[in-house]
Input
Amino acid sequence: MHAPLAAMCEIFGGALVGGHTTHDGTLQKTSAIVNGILSVPIDPNAFDAADAEREADGIPVDRATWRQIRDSAAALGFADAELDAWTRRCTERA
Output
């Protein structure tokens, strides 16, 4: 079940730390067991504040980017009234 994850860890770990993997062809001594994994623990809760702020305030979009978004939506067939309603809804949250 976890074999693909373990294989990925071995491959990337060996490459990142410049060490060997547990594959027989890379070992100098075939009786050795090598674990060259690099671990970087990350606390997912550290991202909660930024996520909460974006959820409350939205993501700022400059006028040029918003114009490109509107132009793309119009090219896909969205009506101007529908785009205007969406624009009002988004700016009311800010």
